[in-house]
Amino acid sequence: MTMKLYPCTEEPIKVYGLQHCLLPHHFWRLPEEILGRVSEGVAQRATSPVGGRIRFRTDSTKITIHTKLSNNRVDWAIPLAGSAGSDVYIGSKQKIRYVGLIVPKSYEENAAHLTFEKNNDLEDVTIHLPRNAQLEDIQIELEDDARLEPPTPYAFELPMVFYGSSITEGGCASRPANAYTALLSRWLNADYINLGFSGAAKGEPVLASYIAGLEMSVFIMDYDHNAPTAEHLENTHEPFFKEIRKAHPKLPVLFLTKPDFDAKPEEAARRRGIIQRTYDNARAEGDNSVYFIDGEGFFGTSNRESCTIEGCHPNDLGFMRMAETIYPVLEGIMSSGGNAR
Questions:
Q1: Do the domains at 3-149 and 156-337 have one common CATH topology?
Q2: Model's pTM, two decimal places?
Q3: Which sign does the torsion angle of CA 305, 311, 314, 315 carry?
Q4: Pick the CATH number of 3-149 from 3.90.870.10, 2.60.120.260, 2.40.128.120, 2.102.30.10
Q5: Which of 85, 95, 227, 321 has the fewest CB atoms nearer than 10 Å to its CB?
Q6: Which residues does the chain have with pLDDT short of 50?
């Protein structure tokens, strides 16, 4: 059996969730001209491919995926699989299934590969890219005579856009596809862009202007955690929203508050009040396209302490509970938007 190698940026293979104008040289989340205008923290995190996906459709019964990272750093609360791994799924819509993880054997290695087999049906393959490690290259090996076609379009092709903290970014899921953003994408069969910036999402006006220029189906505003103080949150939250609303008068906007309510409940309640005030003010002005979810309820009432790594960042259970809470709200928003296929 002979095999043929394809670069991941070669048509009809599609890259989602990243800045296509930068490919194939960089797998970044923000365009280069923006990186010089944002904080150092945002600029650094924006060069990781969080939320990026590579998708294609093939009938090849044997598939090998090769990844090469340009860096592979230790993260204190995320396993190697979560920081440097790429998840692979087969199928689409309700028939999607997990087939494995592409991850280096240690932090000292940057290359990895995964070989798996499937039947000869023409099926979608989706690769969820790493959270921490910068990606240098991905190549896909298929049987020489196999069909290679564009992926089945998402039911919602106009992406959901998430802006927020390390939690939005996916910390600390055990692997990338277990982040709440990725779970929602699969459950809704929707494209998305992850603009979570660990420790650095502070409501910067330049990010508000950039996001306002994106085409999207819904905007999820989730940066409560990174605002250094309640005062900072108060000074930035409503202006950030208004910048988005000015560009998109009817765009659904979902406000979230942080999930780790238990450690400092008084401070968390004050922050929640600020975010709810942005929502209430919009509603009072006749804006019926805003939505609000209180993060205190994300982890439920049973075994809340089992939902995080260290009382703050969700683990897989925490992310699952977050996604289960957010899903019905987003499903209602997306279904009523009229852009489903």
A1: no
A2: 0.96
A3: negative
A4: 2.60.120.260
A5: 95
A6: 338-341
